[in-house]
Specification:
By secondary structure, this protein is mainly α. Helices cover about 50% and strands about 10% of the residues. The chain contains six helices and two strands, in the order αααβααβα. Strands 1-2 form a two-stranded antiparallel sheet. The chain is elongated and about 115 Å long. About 10% of the residues are buried.
Length: about 160
């Protein structure tokens, strides 16, 4: 049996089916858009969206009204305030830290301005620096800092 007539038959059948379906679609009427039901008093002009916005509770302004409100807001706006800077800092002194390490830590944290002064005061004192968490103020007097870190920390 030869396959050529078989494939020619299938091709002809596909072409015929395509023509039948195309003719059927051309003869069918185009679907009409559904008409939206209108209630009495419903507007169909351009102001319809304005009515819907008002019903939704939106405020409608003209460009001039908007400009006036923006200008009034700019005039009455309070100046921006910078956030408050913290006045204290928590510092953790690790066990085994020496006086030089503690002085560098406190100077880097901003607790003392001069770590060398803290080292000098420490050499005059016998009480050890105690490890722990301390709440200290920025730019404190080195003597006050030394007094606080040589007493037991408050947990």
């Amino acid at each position: 049996m030869s396959t050529r007539p078989f494939f020619l038959g299938i091709g002809a059948g596909l072409i015929a089916a395509t023509l039948v379906f195309a003719a059927g679609d051309a003869l069918q009427p185009a679907p009409q858009p559904e008409a939206t039901p209108q209630t009495p008093g419903q507007k169909t002009d351009e102001s319809d969206w304005q009515e819907q916005a008002k019903q939704a509770g939106l405020l409608l302004l003209t460009q001039e009204q908007l400009d006036q409100k923006l200008a009034a807001a700019k005039q009455g706006a309070a100046p921006k305030q910078e956030p408050a800077k913290p006045t204290s800092i928590y510092v953790y002194i690790l066990p085994g830290m020496g006086t030089n390490d503690v002085a560098r830590l406190l100077q880097a944290a901003g607790v003392v301005e001069d770590g060398n002064r803290l080292i000098e005061l420490r050499s005059e004192q016998e009480d050890p620096i105690r490890a722990g968490m301390y709440e200290l103020q920025f730019k404190m007097d080195p003597a006050d800092v030394l007094h606080k870190i040589t007493t037991a920390p408050s947990e």
